[in-house]
């Protein structure tokens, strides 16, 4: 059965892609250029050239202040992700999109089952990232101390590896599909079912 890429479905897809890549970009910044220990070391070294000495804790506090805008963008992308998840749920409830688990169960060939399973795992990983991130962000409003739910942060950070794997497999699958079939899936995901 050929998939229908309606305007609402395409909106969901590109919102999801935009938010996931935005979130991944902020994590990349956190792990590289805006790593708090690296920034703190740069701040301490630079201040020493001006004759100002600060202790490591003060340098870390300054580093956190420097990268605070990056976290604001992380939260904005997270809100966009939440909107795209709500839109996907609406698409499934209104029968404009299929439940990922049904795609796995209804797959007729081994190849189709593998594709559907990767898509299911991608959806599951994104959902778990969103839930763990939201729970960690709203822990105080939910009545939890930050120290008591440190494990949630660890789960959230751990899920980055499977997300990267499934996003990579998804993109590789789309490229492979585009090169080996005449379905024009990329064009249809951009322009809709009328291929241009």
Protein architecture, described:
The structure is a single chain. By secondary structure, this protein is mainly alpha-helical. It folds into two domains: 1-97; 98-196. Helix content is 76%, strand content 0%. It is built from eight helices and no strands. It starts with 6 loop residues before the first helix and ends in a 5-residue tail after the last helix.
List the helices and strands and how they pair.
Layout (H helix, E strand, L loop, with lengths): L6 H25 L4 H14 L6 H38 L6 H7 L3 H28 L12 H9 L1 H21 L4 H7 L5
Helix pairs in contact: 1-3, 2-3, 3-5, 4-5, 5-6, 5-7
Offer a quick outline of the entry.
This protein is mainly α and 196 residues long.
Which descriptors apply to this entry?
196 residues, mainly alpha, 2 domains, 8 helices, 0% strand
Average pLDDT confidence is 91
Q: Outline, from the CA principal axes?
A: elongated
- Main sheet, how many strands, which sense, barrel? none
**Rg over CA atoms:** 21 Å
Helix content: over 70%
Instruction: Give the count of structural domains.
Output: 2
The total strand number stands at 0
From the N-terminal CA to the C-terminal CA, the straight-line distance is: 21 Å
User: Element order, helices and strands?
Assistant: HHHHHHHH
Share of β-strand residues: under 5%
Secondary-structure-based class equals mainly alpha
Give unreliable regions as ranges: none
Helical segment tally? 8
């Amino acid at each position: 059965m050929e998939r229908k890429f309606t305007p609402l479905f395409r909106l969901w897809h590109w919102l999801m892609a935009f938010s996931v890549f935005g979130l991944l970009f902020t994590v990349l910044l956190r792990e590289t250029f805006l790593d708090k220990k690296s920034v703190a070391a740069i701040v301490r070294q630079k201040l020493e050239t001006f004759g100002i000495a600060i202790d490591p804790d003060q340098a870390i506090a300054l580093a956190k202040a420097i990268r605070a805008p990056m976290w604001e963008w992380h939260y904005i992308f997270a809100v966009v992700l939440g909107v795209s998840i709500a839109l996907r749920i609406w698409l499934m409830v209104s029968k404009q999109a299929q439940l990922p688990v049904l795609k796995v169960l209804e797959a007729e060939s081994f190849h189709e089952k593998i594709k559907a399973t990767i898509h299911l795992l991608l959806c599951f990983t994104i959902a778990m990232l969103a839930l763990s991130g939201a729970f960690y962000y709203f822990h105080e409003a939910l009545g939890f101390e930050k120290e008591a739910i440190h494990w949630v942060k660890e789960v959230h950070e751990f899920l980055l590896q499977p997300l990267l794997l499934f996003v990579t497999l998804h993109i590789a699958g789309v490229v492979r599909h585009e090169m080996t079939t005449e379905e024009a899936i990329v064009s249809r995901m951009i322009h809709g079912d009328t291929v241009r």
